[in-house]
Amino acid sequence: MIPKTTVPIFAILLFCCAVRAEPPAPIEMGSRGVSNFIARMEKERKAHVAFLGGSITQKATGHSQMVADWLKQNWSDVDFTFTNAGLSSTCSVTGAFRVDRDVLSQGQVDLLVLEFAVNDDQDAMYDRETAIRGLEGIVRQYFEANPTGDIISVQFVNPEILAKKQAGEEAISVAAHKKVARHYDLPIVDVGQALANEIEAGKMTWDENYGGTHPNDEGYAFATGLITKIIDDTISGETLQTIGMPKPIDEYSYAGARIVDPQKLNWLGGWQFEQVSKELLPVGQIRSDYTEYKALRSESAGDYLYYTFTGSALTAFVLAGPDAGKLEVSIDSGDWKTVDLYHKHSKGLNYPRTVVLADGLEGSFHQAAIRVAEEKNPESNGSTATVLYFGTNE
After folding, report:
1. 329 Cβ partners below 8 Å, 6+ apart?
2. Is the whole model's pTM more than 0.90, yes or no?
3. How do residues 296-348 score in pLDDT, each as one tens digit?
4. Are 112 and 149 in contact (CB under 8 A)?
5. Residues with Cβ < 8 Å from 2, sequence gap 6 or more?
């Protein structure tokens, strides 16, 4: 027999199990929303909004355009400048190396809408540490350039991220990016959580309503509504507040990311520095985003590069096609590390990606030796290396 004193406890447990818990909120405002952005619009009547991310951001009719249209409609007396710095397939580490060139060089940016969670998950397949280093590098560079600016951190969604949300879990990239946003007190828009909530309520579907990893118009409008709610719900700021920069989460975050012209390296062997074209890359599709570049290319195992640099990391932004090989890297005459350039999307495309050649380095000056490896990925049909630029983290 169950003691009478335990019956109320069981009743409470059964009641709790019968009541569905409230789903997690998809929006976090931070302590001040985007109050500096609001204050600048109200007082100066002009503002620069930039969007940085992968192909989800790059799409001309996506949230970057919809947010711009909403701002112009709701703040018709403000002179806006908009910069779309989306670049297909790129991750947060690539973003850290190009934020200065593609965003900050365009003039003072008053609001940065930032997304890389999907590409950090499905393309780069980063661990938590690297996803933090990439996004934190972007955030710190932005606030160094404009300490009275604002950022909205947006996490878009793919099937894997959505499945984790529906299971009450969080993808590595989403959790890493949220950690960075909370550390710097940034507003967060979790599109995956919002969509999971709507699907659970029977109000939306993944394919028909949202449209998939690359959203359809309804999906982009759904995400845009979440982003603009941050702006709409921000209490008007009376004065601009300087953002106090906390200590970094990771001392090796890419806050000092710098692009290095390949011509600064010394090379030995058959390397050539030519315009990106079918003549230089005879196999695999070449996206038009990269035909304006010149690239340093080797087609033979055993070709060497040498470079002396400062900083904690050395990276390379490559076009990895069907014939992409492997690089071997030695730092300060240490052991050789192998880096595979070939990617799962390389089969028919010269796939753009950042590879980390060395990271977490101590000390100031380093000497790198890089060579094209004899070994190649079994899926690759060659041993080539095509580098658009190198990068250091100073």
Report:
1. 314, 336, 337, 338, 339, 357, 358, 368, 369, 370
2. yes
3. 999 999 999 999 999 999 999 999 999 999 999 999 999 999 999 999 999 99
4. yes
5. 10
Report the candidate in 119, 127, 147 with the shortest Cα–Cα distance to residue 343: 119
| pLDDT tens sequence across 107-139 | 999 999 999 999 999 999 999 999 999 999 999
Per-residue tokens: 314:
């050395």
Determine what percent of the chain is predicted with pLDDT higher than 90.
91
Output the CA–CA distances (angstroms, integers) from residue 118 to 89, 91, 299, 353, in the order listed: 10, 8, 32, 14
What domains are there in the chain, each with its CATH number?
Answer: 20-233 (3.40.50.1110), 261-393 (2.60.120.260)
Show the 3-state SS of the chain: CCCHHHHHHHHHHHHHHHCCCCCCCCEECCCCCCHHHHHHHHHHCEEEEEEEECHHHHCCCCHHHHHHHHHHHHCCCCEEEEEEEECCCCCHHHHHHHHHHHCHHHCCCCEEEECCHHHHHHCCCCCHHHHHHHHHHHHHHHHHHCCCCEEEEEECCCHHHHHHHHCCCCCHHHHHHHHHHHHCCCCEEEHHHHHHHHHHCCCCCHHHHHCCCCCCHHHHHHHHHHHHHHHHHCCCCCCCCCCCCCCCCCCCCHHHEEEECHHHCEEECCCEEEECCCCCCCCCECCHHHCCCEEEEECCCCCEEEEEEECCCEEEEEEECCCECEEEEEECCCCCEEEECCCCCCCCECEEEEEEEECCCCCCEEEEEEEECCCCCCCCCCCEEEEEEEEEEC
Summarised one tens digit per residue, pLDDT across range 224-282 is 999 999 999 998 777 899 988 999 999 999 999 999 999 999 999 999 999 999 999 99
pLDDT band at 20 (very low <50, low <70, confident <90, very high): low
* Residues 146-170 pLDDT 10s: 999 999 999 999 999 999 999 999 9
Phi then psi for residue 153, to 5 deg, are -90, 115
